[in-house]
Amino acid sequence: MQEISIDSKSLRRRLTVSEVVEEVGFGTAQLMMLVTGGAVVFNRGVQMCLMSILTVPIARDMGLTTLEQGMLSTVMFGGMFMGTMASGWFGDAAGRRCPVVASSISTAIIGCATAACADFRWLMVARLCLGFAMALGDVPVTALLSEVTPVKWRIPMRAATEGMFDLGYTYAAFLAACSDGYLENLNWRQLMIFTCIPPGVLGLSAAAFLPESPVWLMSRYDSAEATKVFDQFRHLNGRPNACIDLEPMEAPPKARDQPSVVDNLKVVFGEQHLSTTGVLCFSAFVLNIFYYGGMYIQPQVMTQGNGLPPGWEMVMGGPFDLVGLCLAMVLAQVAPRRLVLGFALAMASFSVACFGYAGSFLVRTSLLEVMYQIGLFGFYWVPAVGFVVFGQLAVESYPTHVAATGGSVAFCMGRVGAMSAPLLFEHVWKFSGQWEIFCYLSSILCALGIAAVLYLEARSGGWQCGGCGFERKGPTLENAPASRQLSVVSGM
Predict the structure, then answer these.
(1) What is the mean pLDDT of residues 337-360?
(2) What is the rounded CA–CA span in Å between residue 363 and residue 64?
(3) Which residue has the higher pLDDT, 130 or 292?
(4) Residues with Cβ < 8 Å from 52, sequence gap 6 or more?
(5) φ, ψ for residue 282 (rounded to 5)?
(6) Are 104 and 14 in contact (CB under 8 A)?
(7) DSSP string of 340-369?
(8) Which one of 72, 110, 148, 209 is most buried, counting C-beta atoms within 10 A?
(9) Phi–psi pair at 190, nearest 5 degrees
(10) What is the pTM of this model?
(11) Which CATH superfamily includes the segment(s) 13-247+260-488?
(12) 97-114 vs 197-209: helix axis angle to the nearest 10?
């Protein structure tokens, strides 16, 4: 009788890609990706701070009108809008790594080139290109870090990513405050160059060490390359015995062709995701009106009252960012994420109203000063909560193969809000003579954002709490067919 030998490995159950992510765990691999991929977010923090504090020095140096001052910020957000649009297709078609590396390096290079601009027209062109370069990697890095992180660590990872933004913002504010605490006589060209040094180093590190997302590789049916990346992960995380035997997936004939932008958008704006897309877009719009509008007006109105010099008040905002990040990590783990987003919008509405009312007084009493500081530091901790939860929802609410496209659509509406804020502020101030009216308008928009979130919950049947505070309705990884498991891998 012939003896039959059975290989124990052949009997081992193959794992889905989401199960392998959980199997390799969280550790050095994800932290390395946070530091290298986070260069994109660090760059954005640096440039957003510079956009805020350099408006007045640049205007004085070049003799700009108030409308031209607003255009400097608006054109940068216009570039970010175009970069975000491109990032969705780029991140889904070419992978997450390529746009992240391209964004990191090009932002540092263009930032240095901006310092050499001799007139307003060249500065406008440089700002447009800088905005495009900054935004090109924003959505892909959000999707990348979410995809390689186990479920229970996704919100902490998202909070740490926003912490990279705060680090860049505080670094730029600190250099500016050391030069001139009142931000009036800054050497803006020198400051632009100095602030581009750390982003350049981080960009080169990303080019050398940042791997591709194994989840995206599996969405392209490249299990061999995905297994190699997971093998690196398990060794870096100190789990060499973790099982990374991926379930084989054969690509259907049509899947071998790259999906078009139109195909991806049909999914994002399809019947299943239309309500979610609409609410995410409006939430992004009002959060960015609140945040970037606040950043733009702070240096122009913070010289009044009894507070610290404006530069050091902006530096002091860093710890409040950390408070917001810690609060987001706690709330998003114990409560539905859309509920936390609604809370952030409510706090945004309250704080910007406080800032506008108290800041309108030339001489503030102690009570008004407290109200002013509540509003001022609300520009730091409130967006930290809102952007952590919004960013995670923006990439986990869609199937993996369109996650970057779906996220880019929502982020694009945020860019529209950021782009509109400076011009809206300048026009409101010019025609009414009262800058605080802009704050009241922002407060009303944030209140409407709360209504949009409540509307979405009413349509979806109410709040749903899962292990990480949010759970989408529909198929789960456990009961989804193998051909569709990748489509829900980024969901919670």
Answers:
(1) 91
(2) 29
(3) 130
(4) 295, 296, 298, 299, 314
(5) -70, -40
(6) no
(7) HHHHHHHHHHHHHHHHHHHHT-SS--HHHH
(8) 148
(9) -65, -40
(10) 0.74
(11) MFS general substrate transporter like domains (1.20.1250.20)
(12) 160
What are 301-314's pLDDT values in tens digits? 655 544 566 667 66
State which H helix or E strand residue 85 sits in.
Answer: helix 66-93
Q: Whole-angstrom Cα distance, residue 335 to residue 470?
A: 7
Q: What angle do CA 181, 202, 45 make, to 5 degrees?
A: 40
Q: Is the separation of the CB atoms in 299 and 56 below 8 Å? A: yes
Six-digit token pair at 86?
Answer: 């491109």
Distance CA 213, CA 167 (A): 25
The first and second tokens of residue 215, run together, are 């989840």
Backbone angles phi, psi at 15, to 5 degrees: -105, 150
Q: What are the structural domain ranges in the chain? A: 13-247+260-488
3-state secondary structure of 335: coil
Tally Cβ neighbours within 10 Å of residue 306: 12
pLDDT at 294 exceeding the cut of 50: yes
Amino acid letter at 6? I
Count the Cβ atoms, other than its own, within 10 Å of residue 6. Answer: 7
- Joined together, the tokens standing for residue 321 give 């960012």
User: 């090109």: which residue's tokens?
Assistant: 136
Q: How far lies 17's CA from each of 24, 92, 235, 486, in Å?
A: 11, 17, 17, 8
Burial class (CB in 10 A: 0-12, 13-18, 19+), 473: exposed
Give residue 105's pLDDT: 94
> Quick one: average pLDDT of 273-290?
91
Nearest to 340 by CA among 292, 390, 305, 375: 390
Whose tokens are 């899947």? That residue is: 255
Residue 15: strand pairing partners: 246
Whether the Cβ atoms of residue 403 and residue 490 lie closer than 8 Å to each other: yes
What pLDDT digit, counting tens, does each position of 150-199 carry? 999 998 998 899 889 888 988 998 888 888 877 778 889 999 999 999 88
C-alpha to C-alpha distance for 294 and 438, rounded to whole angstroms = 10
- At 400, the amino acid letter reads T
37 pLDDT higher than 90: yes
Distances from the Cα of 449 to the Cα of 329, 346, 452, 491, angstroms: 22, 9, 5, 23
Distance CA 261, CA 269 (A): 12
In the beta sheet, which residues pair with residue 246? 15
